[in-house]
Amino acid sequence: MSISAILIDDEAWTRDVLRKLGSWDKLGIEIVAEASDGEYGMALINRLNPDIIITDVKMPHMNGIELLKALRNNGNRAKVIFASGFDDYKFVHEAMKLQASDYLLKPIKPKELNERLAGCVEEIRGSKDGPDAGNLDLQGFMDVAWVQDYRSLQKSVYESLRSNDAFILHKDFDRLTGFICERKNETISKSLVICIYFDLHHWLQKYILENGYSISEILPGKTRSFVFSNDFSLTEMMDHIRTLYCDAQKMILRITKSKKRIDIKKIIQYIQENYCDDISLEEIAARFYVSKEYLSKIFKQENGINFSEYVTALRMKKAKELLLVNKIPIKEIPCLTGYAYPAHFYKVFKKFYRKTPGSLQKED
């Protein structure tokens, strides 16, 4: 069961901090959207129906208490956590009266945040009548007068995405963007803007999954990262989703081509010849024109262990040889086996051999 969350805060750095401090993957929570004001936050909640909402108290257009009050009046029972810089009894009391899950004070402490998130997850998973959260509600969107024209253009974009032709994709996206931006004269509501964005995102996900990849493999860290606010333009939103489409098309085409030419034996040979240097999975992936995620998957399939474990084993074997056969002084071995910091080398060596370099040397 996937648990969805929305972040609402007018300070970008606070949303960044929450993203970094939360154990989202570990807890099985996906941040599906962000907003920088209460009005767009409410529109996102109504359309996406998230399980968890993390919101500030004082925000433009609608504050956090007003937002929670509106949710509760509408029968929405989502878990709401306040992250606020205001240690005000009135706010805390009102939040608790409206059944907020917690009221955390800024600066946010990782332990407090993750304990509260874990508690929310436990309550959600234990609930038998929880909402069908995280799914886009298209009610009303399909009744808009221009929806059929939109659908026609959206399908053209999707077909050009599948064609692997970047020029056609840009051309079709220009047409779709122009059509959407013309609608601003008809005053597109926040709710419809959200529908357009997440509908286009849905078709992008469909394309990625149809090609046999996960979203994180193709667009690591990029999914649904657009921040909704009263200050953004439709052009900005469309340019953002266009970038995601183009990046996904480019990455899948690159991986498809690399599958035909990737030679894992050559990669192994390169690692064996260079493991004493400062090599990384990212550097090797770039050298052999393949994505880091794909290389990691293929490497483990072929070798039974992951890249870092393989490199560590090579380095430790070399370290032992230098120590016992070549009689190299211990202090010189770290830099000869690819370790910039001696302390890290000693830690890895002891974990690998269950002995320190000195004690192993004495036993020889």
Characterise this structure.
This protein is an alpha/beta fold and 364 residues long. It has 18 helices and 6 strands. Strands 5-4-3-1-2-6 form a 6-stranded parallel β-sheet, sandwiched between helices. Strand 4, helix 5 and strand 5 form a beta-alpha-beta unit. Helix 9 runs parallel beside helix 11.
Pairing-aware structural class of the strands and helices? alpha/beta
Largest beta sheet, briefly? 6 strands, parallel
Query: pLDDT below 50 for ≥5 consecutive residues: which ranges?
Result: none
Taken in chain order, the helices and strands follow as EHHEHEHEHEHHHHHEHHHHHHHH
Neighbour order of strands in the largest sheet = 5-4-3-1-2-6
Q: Report the average pLDDT across residues.
A: 87
- The number of distinct β-strands equals 6
Shape: flat
Q: What is the C-alpha radius of gyration, as a whole number of Å?
A: 26 Å
Distance between the termini: 55 Å
Helix content: 55-70%
Output the number of helix runs.
Answer: 18
Q: Quote the beta fraction.
A: 5-15%
Write the layout of secondary structure elements.
Blueprint: E1 3-8, H1 12-21, H2 24-27, E2 29-35, H3 38-48, E3 52-55, H4 64-73, E4 79-84, H5 89-97, E5 102-105, H6 110-126, H7 147-162, H8 166-182, H9 190-210, H10 215-218, E6 227-228, H11 234-261, H12 264-274, H13 281-287, H14 292-303, H15 307-324, H16 333-336, H17 342-353, H18 357-363
Parallel strand pairs: 1-2, 1-3, 2-6, 3-4, 4-5
Helix pairs in contact: 3-9, 7-8, 7-9, 8-11, 9-11, 15-17
Tag the structure with descriptive keywords.
364 residues; alpha/beta; 18 helices; 6 strands; flat; 8% strand; single chain; 6-stranded parallel beta sheet
